[in-house]
Amino acid sequence: MAVSVDEAVSTGPARxxxxxxxxxxxxxxxxxxxALLTVLAVVMLFPVLWMIETSIKENRDxxxxxxxxxxxxxxxxxxxxxxxxxxxxxxxxxxxxxxSVVVAGASTVLATVLGVPAAWAYSRFAVKAKKDQLxxxxxxxxxxxxxxxxxxxxxxxxxxxxxxxxxxxxxxTAFNVPFTIWMxxxxxxxxxxxxxxxxxxxxxxxxxxxRRFTLPLLVPGIAATAVFALIFSWNEFxxxxxxxxxxxxxxxxxxxxxxxxxTTTDWGLVAAASVVFALPVxxxxxxxxxxxxxxxxxxxxxx
Amino acid sequence: xxxxxxxxxxxxxxxxxVAVDHVDLSIGDGELFVMxxxxxxGKTTTLRAIAGLERQTTGDIHIGGTLVNDLPxxxxxxxxxxxxxxxxxxxxxxxxxxxxxxxxxxxKPEVHKRVDEAARLMRLxxxxxxRPRQLSGGEQQRVALARALVRRPRAFLMDEPLxxxxxxxxxxxxxxxKHLQGELGATxxxxxxxxxxxxxxGHRIAILNKGRVEQIGTPLEVYDRPAxxxxxxxxxxxxxxxxxxxxxxxxLRGQGGLVLTPPSGLPRDRRLVxxxxxxxxEVTAPGAERSxxxxxxxxxxxxxxxxxxxxxxxxxxVRVRMPPTVRFAAxxxxxxxxxxxxxxxxxxxxxxxxx
Lengths: 303, 355
Description:
A: MetI-like fold, B: alpha+beta, Rossmann fold, 24% helix
């Protein structure tokens, strides 16, 4: 079904269909649109802007009443504090960032490596009770992950995975694999199986045919799926809080949250840490944006 | 080139679906063999089993006298052309053609020679430097055919290669494939659901239904004496009229009173159905000799012929093919008579040809 959004929302017969914009008067509508979008943008972006501002203000400007929007002195001290400990060594925050990179990266790679071949198999082969299996895989995502925090905690304690990066990697992989399988199955379905058939007749094994012909066509899908998996692992807070305790293992979300509270909160440091935390995913998404758009819109159009 | 023997082929998928129940085929060296049937009849699965893309549950496949059951597709030395062409999207025509040869590890000059040869045969000269997406459907399918040719395989397998082309192009390509097959003397197994394609291409046709072979024969055999009621209803456009008949006074009498010439060796005490081709009947003026009274229900004016649908004595919707000069209005009272030879007669219960 190749239905554009416009077609999909228009219900009346096409002939006497006037776009709603005309009926309201095109000009008035677009002004209203712009106004609404501006308000929305301000509401959405103000916290981000405020975070960035706070991260480059000196502490007394941060606490200034009334708040200083423009006339403050710019300082990068907070960013220095994010990475460098007061004694000159590496700060606990920088260690947690590194942990986040390792945990999110490894779990995304693992989920992709496990999920893509599984999706390919589910798409290509007649598997016994395929639909039931796929439903089961999806069903693991039905409940909110928080529900299983306590059982996971107890299990991890038994096997010694508490306060262990491997433990986090495994649990994030477990959450990302079902998602990867489902999303990738859609992408694999879009690639005609005939490419692999033809390659097999041309002398390749099934796996070679997959690797040489199907896999390259799946790159946009893999990129899109991996970004989502990465964002999930990167942002995950609850499990990271429950399953880790020491500074050497803890990932960034609980580490940043840990800065708040106590007798005083160094809001400048919190803001700077948050900016640093937000950047990698933004940069990554920006780098793969072409694939991301191709990936997210694929399947919306018939081949 | 080589012949292909398929013996007692059975394919059951892990989910329990039986795609092929029991198929025996003996395809001669240099033969253009067509497998015809409705979708889901097992023709494509049979073809894919011959190619090695599916592993049959039981049964044997021999290509050129060699048992190939356990050989991967590449080692069976066959080429396949797909409905969706399956040209590698990132390769130019030239490289698409050269691809299977390079995979085989042929020396460069030989690859070049064979690609040129195939390109000349399929008239691909101007298309050699384009990528698949720059080619029309017909051009893509010609490239796909050429890619099958360069291999010089022992047999060609064609999986509905013309289905995605528009009607005019399909007729052209049909001629082209037939010509090519004759010129190369190639063994070709051709799967289609289009009876016109099957009739015009095949040296022999196998009609498949529900994973079984209903009939194997030359196009004329299949047309004149369909082996079962299924074949009778499947071949021909419009298909045979199936008229319940009984034997009386040495005549074959249809329910509506239509009299047919009985074939010899008719079994007794069985319910019978006669298969009468629309061109073996004639619509006449009412009361003409040997005719039964009938009424025209509708007429399809096709230009070169008219298909009349007539009722007579409660026998409904009998189709009659008439030349365009014989014109009756809808609802006209007419006569209907049989003009052809002995019809094919089927047992209602077994649905098989009895005489």
